[in-house]
Amino acid sequence: MSTKSIAIAAVALVAVGIGATVWYATRPAADDPFAQCRVSSVGGGAAAIGGPFELVNEDGVTVTDKDVFTKPTILYFGYTFCPDVCPLDNMRNADALRILDERGYDAQAAFISIDPERDTPEVVKEFTSLFHDNMIGLTGTPEQVKAASMAYKTYYKKQEDGDPEYYLVDHSTFAYLVFPEIGFVDFFKREDTAEQMADRVACFIDAAG
């Protein structure tokens, strides 16, 4: 299966899996403090996505979500062996951070590996260092990674019919905006550009006061 086919299949499966949880709305709720920033809405409210987790950071230290989300964070689930989707998405996320940096906003990115079998803290650290100094790499046990993935309603599945060493992993490609104390506030699609992401992150930061 080609990389393009993998990406399309992953997105399709996420659409089926999340289904009624996420949909695009033209009119945000009037009582939403971030209404002017949103281009999407979440079934059940923002609290339906996100939650506590425990993972291992790129320095080998066990951390919780509270340790990670110390500032507005663009969160992405992927893996370092991903041939093109993950590098492209993480470069876009890093570019959004650079735009925010230039505008005077303090934000960061976080990358959670969904391939803990290969993505050790050392491997994840090398990967994130390619994109931005303010990108945090996270991995963990299969159980820890699965719990974090379930909290954010993401999808991933190892391809069992490939090479046992050079296998690929189908996965969803949403990026999430998470604030300390508040939690998940919005998500980004693959077609969102770095400029669009930076504009929306800045809007949320301004609205949060």
From TrEMBL:
One of its GO terms (molecular function) is metal ion binding. Cu cation binds at C82, C86, H171. InterPro entries: SCO1/SenC, Thioredoxin-like_sf. Disulfide bonds join C82-C86. CDD domains: SCO. Keywords: Copper, Disulfide bond, Metal-binding. Belongs to the SCO1/2 family. This is SCO family protein. It comes from Celeribacter ethanolicus.
